[in-house]
Amino acid sequence: MTSQAPGNHTTLIEPLQGWEPLKLRDIWEYRELLYFLIWRDIKVSYARTNLGVGWAVLKPVLTMAVFAFIFGWLTRLPSDGVPYPIFVYSALLPWQLFARLVAGSGSSMVANESLVTKVYFPRLIAPLSITVVGTLDFVIAVGVLLGMMWYYQIALTAGVWMLPLLVVVTIAAGLGVGLWIAALNVLCRDIGHAQPFLIQIWLFATPVIYPASLIPEAWRMLYALNPMVGVVEGFREALFKAEGQSGFMVGLSVIVASVLLVSGVYVFNRTEQTIADTV
Fold it and tell me: So where are the chain's domains?
């Protein structure tokens, strides 16, 4: 018979069987680690910078300026009657949150290799910390959007109540895709190299610099399978239009984002047992 010294515990990491629910109790028990990772990610993002959290605002503002010059002033793309700078910025906010979650969650296991290979903790904590930090940056950047609306004398519409729902859909889609990439990236590092290219292509497949109305009617159903299409169009309508036409796109985005999140969590948890060995 094998005896075990008092106070010593052995944790056996096993993949979830079937569609077993998330072990939220484990995540709660390791909440202090989650707080630590969130604080660490914030410090790493803005350590040794003069602007600090100001970069959360400067990044979308600079991107908006470049897009406004190239696509608004030079190319003269339509903007549905809204000044092009705010047209782009209102789309960049959810898009950059999505891109941040995909990139951060997708590389979370590799980035935390030293921690993953030494101690046990619910692996989902690493992508969750990225989600919290990305959402905080999003909230900070919203302040610029409100300032731009004041400058252009654009009043909030009655549809502004939809914005929290659209943020949740963005988080679900970004985290879902990121979890898929995180699981696959551990098994094949080529996925990590392809990830930036995927995000760039996804940007132009999303109506950030152009309105979705430019897409031919026959292709809009397929186009709307991109969950960020409904999110971006929904953002603009909630902010600028009293009555919108994006209800179908938003509904489809909710469905696709939900599928991505559920399947992403499932695949991620199924690979949890092998992550420490292959990361």
Answer: 24-278
